Structures are given as C-alpha cells and as structure tokens.
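Appendix B. Extra example for self-study. Work through it before the problem class; the solution is given directly after the inputs so you can check yourself.
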Amino acid sequence: MASTLADLQSLEEDQLQQIDEEGIREITYRQALQEALTEEMQRDDNVILMGEDIGAYGGSYVVTRGFQEDWGRDRVIDTPISELGMVGVATGAAMAGIKPVLELMTINFALLAIDQIVNHAAKISYMFGGQFNAPTVVRTAAGWGQLSATHSQTFEGWFAHIPGLRVVMPSTPLDAKGFLKSAIRGEDPVLFIEHSLIYRNRGPVPSEDYTLPLEGSEVRREGDDITLISWSRGAILALGAADELEEEHGISCEVIDMRVLRPLDTETVIESVKKTNRAVIVEESWRTMGLGAEIAARIQEEAFDWLDAPVGRVGALEVPMPYARNLERLVIPGKDEVIEAVRQALA
Amino acid sequence: MATSATSDVGLLEQMDTDQLLGFYRQMYLIRRFEERAAEQYAYGKIGGFLHLYIGEEAVAVGAIAAMTERDHLFTHYRDHGYALAIGADPNAAMAELFGKETGTTKGRGGSMHMVHPPRNFWGGYAIVGGHIPLAVGAGLALKHKGEDAVSVAIFGDGSTNAGAFHEAANMASLWKLPVVFLCENNLYGMGTAVEYASAVPQMSTKAEGHGIETEIVDGQDVLAMYDAMQRAITHCKEGNGPFFLEAMTYRFRGHSMADPESYRDRQEIDHHRERDPIPLFKEQLIEAEKASNEAFERIDAEIEEIVEQAVNFADESEFPDPTTLFDWVYYSEGEVGKGPDRG
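Solution. Structure tokens for the complete assembly:
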C-alpha cells in the first residue's frame, strides 16, 4: 500500500501553499490533515500519534512525514502490524486520559480491528451508563487504484451502521482539518475516513484556528432539476458530473455532500428532494446493503409524495475488485455513469 | 518462570489481624453474594448470563489488595468478585444484576459489565480477550503521563489463545509498559479443558515468548496471591515493563447458569473443592491463632445481613426510566446523543 513514486515526487510541489485571486489560502487535503495534527499536538501534550509506519516511513499516504523527527518517538509511535491490538490500545489510552490519534493504513485493514471498534470503542459510553468514555480517534483511508480485491474496498457503511460511533468522510481540505480537530478534542470515538485519491486536492482553508462540528451534510452546489447525493470522492465526482450536465444538457443539479455518515443528517437531503423532486445517490461501494440504500429509504419515507421518479443509485459493480485497469474502470462508477443515471431519472 | 510457594507463613505472621480478616470478609462476601444471586436467578429476578466466580475468590481478593487507588483495572466478564473486592457497593452490584436504575451501570451493562470508576475499575468486558488491549492502552497513558501506577488486565486461560492477547502482550513488552497481566487459569475455557485448547499447559509460556517475566501462583491461597501480585506490581513500577502472573484456580460452579457441566465429572469438582480458598484461609488463621471462631461467626452474620439487604435493595429499586433509553449513546452532549437518534 505504498504511495507511488510519482506521488512522492509531486509531494514537494504540493507543499507550497497557494493564494487564489481573492487572497484566500489554498492547501491540499494532505496539508490540511498535517496542520490539524500539528496544531492539536501543540495545543495538548497528551495528543499522540500511533500507527503502522507513521514514523521514519512517514505514513503510507505520507500524512505524518517528518512528525517523528519533530515530536520524537514518544509522541509519534510506530506500531507493530496489529490492527486489533492497536485500536484497543488507543481506546484504553483514551479512557485513561491521553488522546491517541491512530492511523489505520487503509479501511480494508479496519476489518481486523472490527471487534475493538464495534464491541469496545463504540459501546463503552453506553454500556457503562455514561460514567466514562473512550474518545478514540481512528484515521484511515478508503480508495482504489489497481490494488485488486483486498485493498480497494470502502466500508464506511459497515461502521455507520453502529450506534455510538461517529463516522466522518470529508471531501474537502476545509472539512478534513475542521473535522479532525473536532474529533481530537471530542468526547466520542470517531472513525475518520480519508480517500487515497484526494490527498492532493486543493481547497480554501483559513489560517486561523477553527473546528467544525461532526454533524450535518452540506449543499455543495445549488440546482433545481435533481439532487445528487454523495460523500468523499463521490461528492467530487458528482460535482464534476453536475458541471457537465449543466453545460451540455442544460440540467441543473443540486449536489449534497453527506460529510458525516453517523449521525446521518438527511434533513438537508429531504429538503432538497422536495424542491427538485428527483434524486440520484452516488457511492463507490457496492449498492447492496449500502449507505445509499439507507438514504433512498429515508427519501421515500419522508418525501414520497414529492418524488417524480424512482431514486437512482450509482455504485460499484458487485464483484471483488479486479486488478486489470480496464476491468477496474468498469467496477467503479465514473462521471459517465452518474450522467446516465441523472438522464434516466429525468427521462 | 518462577513458581511461588503456597502459604507464606512469614507473611501471615507479619500481617495484622484486621487486614487478614478483611481478606476473609471480602472472599466470604463474594461467595454469599453469588450464592444469593444464583438463587435470585432461579426465581427469575435476574436474566441473561450469570457467570459465577465461586471457587476463585482468592484471586480477586489477593490481587486487588495489592493495588493502589491510582492503578487501573480491566477484567473479563466473570466480574462480580472484582467489583466487590475493589469496593463497589453490594447493593448497586445486586441491583445491576436485577437490571435496575440503581445498579453499577444503571441497568445498561448487567452481570458482565460491572464497574467501579472511583477505583479506576473500568469494567468487565464480555468479548474474550478484548479488554486486554484496553488495559495495555491504559498502561501507555500511565507511562506517557509519568504516573507511579500500573494497569492490570485480568483474563482467563482461554484468552491467551486469542490474537488480542498476543498483540497486546507484544506491544506492552516492546514499549515496556507498566501492565500486570493476571491470568486466571481455571483449567477450562467455558466447557473445553485447557488441554484441548492450548498447545502448552501453562499460559505463562506464551507470555515468555513475548519477553515478559512470569510467575505461577496458587490462586486458591489468598496470601500467596497478595504476595505475588505485590511483586508483579513492584516489577512494573520499577520500570521493568510488564509482568505476567498465572494464578492456578478452579471454578466450582458451571460456566454460567445454563451450563449442564457435561464436560467434567463430580469427582474432579470434589477434588478441587478440597482446596476451597475460604475454609482454607480460615483454617490457616485459626491455626496461626490470628482469629477465633467467634470472629468468623461475627463476620459471617454481618455478611449475611449485607447480602440480604442487597437483594432487598435490588428488588425494591426501580427499573430504568424508558425516557433515558438513548442517554449516553454518545458521551458528548447535544441532540445527537439524546432522543430517538436515527443514527
């Protein structure tokens, strides 16, 4: 799961912050994460980083490069390859009053730790009658890129199923930084899911200290004809599709970025669907039993009378991910599939 | 690997009578509390699982007596004994078994999730081995903050076959964390004898593979337990990394109330009952002229009353208010933690 050589080479140029025409600072998603971690470590000596290869190696997606040099081995701890154990250790440490931010190399490996996430971190506040908490922060990454069957999955729906967890999947540098800082300062266990293909994306991020509450979805683009609903990289894909639909087909899409997957705010979605009367949900995971199914169910429960077409869903094809580039492209939805689904909903 | 001698006569001589009788008192409280709980289970007052600790009381009492108020404790689900030994109110413990609002976790956790936060007892946990990494995490926090304290994980022989134990033990040893691994080897993982589940007969062998110092102790002897636990804690506090203590013990009752005990015979149980930690310790004290029969009779009567009161308290307490159902799904305040959150 190493970064590609090209990725590493381009890192240097990424690190330069840019100022856009309006004088707003733009940084990458990766830098946003780095800033959040640095600022929180400066703010509180009890914030430590843990994870596989986060030290000398710099992290599989290079988020923690240089951190061990700056903060030492006691605050930036390389762990053995023990996902179950390290989530448990981070949870116990959080219970005992320090604040580990644990990096799980990818969300595929979170399956090894599922007992600690679901049966321990998520349960501790409730099961013990609210007498103490386990505010673990687990950072991990979804994504794909010719990594075949076991390294290309995205399991946010599995974790968003669990009461007691907070699950966020930010798509912008602004959200990434604000959410991560909130998660670190927060009282609840948070699964913070990044995406391997958006670390280099740029976006406006204020220089001053800020946090964002871990709740609520956001309208990224206003429109009248149909509502596109997605999260993480899917939201970026939906925005691209919306641009093309507007330019080439004159279709006006409203795009909603779910951002926080548990607690799941569908109020914004319902409001939007009542306006546009149509919806398409875009997800990178399999549709069966997925998050899109839950969102579609809520739309029909709460906005049935406003719908002019069945809720559309665009998702991964129901196969383990193949390696070959052409086959992989068939499995993961792209802009064309989103455009096709929108045109069907409007047909 | 060290094996400590049973019944350290020197220790018995040094200790004062109050402390010795305190050990007896706690063991007898746990015993009678659980016997009454079993009876209440039969009456249908207690639901779900009820895992009795009867026969193993000396482990909890001896070990916890060696801990200070700064130390942390995480245990497995056979946890009534730890809760009572570390100071949880017997009324609250019994009320928890009854599923009442006045229980140790307000009727949320039940038998397997007893706690006592004032003494850093962060709970019984019900996924075998799952709490061991939590205890190691608390050890990491203690080391990070430079506190003069240890974190204690108590678990059964069955846990040492689980990955969670090995991953946690490796990290504790690698990072030299102040963690006492206390394994209660009661010879069975539920109904499967240790010889059918573990490739090695002593669980401490596995800890040695992770570079952890170990000792095997007679878990039926409360003083030997106390003594060994003190050594284990001192080892950790002196910065030598974790310690693994294996207490050899035996569960006199079934795994839970539903256990037909088809996997062991009466003879075997009777054989182990000869080393019941409570009469064993009582005889030891009488022989050493530390206490008289009358002293024990007084304690027994007192315990009887405490346990009777606990049953009455539990019975009379209210069930949790249904409007509090969603409280504490999230620890943080805010609407999302309250009311019928749609998730």
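Self-check: The two ends of chain B are 51 Å apart (CA to CA). If your reasoning did not lead you there, revisit section 3.
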